Amino acid sequence: YFGYARQDRKDEGRVPITAKLVANLITTAGADRVLAIDLHAHQLQGFFDIPVDHLTGELVLSRYFRDKKIERLTVVSPDVGNIKTAARYASHLGGDLAIIHKRRVSGSQVQADELIGRVEGRN
């Protein structure tokens, strides 16, 4: 788990990019390489001044769920930024894709405005 991974860019003025600070702290603590699985965003690798190996659990997770033989499967992307990942999972699993369109109302509140796709009666 990479704490503060979602704070990877400035979305308002005077807001710190805390993910960069955490990357610096890991390096300062003595790490000479980072091994990460499914980072929140690929750009986080660039915050480190040491090598980062970014792995994915996509194939392992896809195999696990495919073996479950889930009927009427729909993979839901929790936001627009994750559509490509969700689409790959849907493709691996032979399922449909749905997307939640949401927006940040305040610093601590997010509102889901719209669901795009079919989820009723689906798994």
Describe this entry's structure for a reader.
By secondary structure, this protein is of the alpha/beta class. It folds into two domains: 1-55, no CATH class; 70-116, no CATH class. It has three helices and five strands. Strand 3, helix 3 (83-93) and strand 4 form a beta-alpha-beta unit. The two termini are 27 Å apart. The model has no long low-confidence stretch (mean pLDDT 92).
Task: Provide keyphrases for this structure.
3 helices, about 120 residues, 2 domains, alpha/beta
Mind telling me the C-alpha Rg?
A: 17 Å
| Helix percentage range | 25-40%
Shape: flat
- Look at the helices and sheets and give the structural class: alpha/beta
Number of domains: 2
Summed up, the helix count is 3
Brief digest:
The chain has 123 residues and is of the alpha/beta class. Helix content is 26%, strand content 23%.
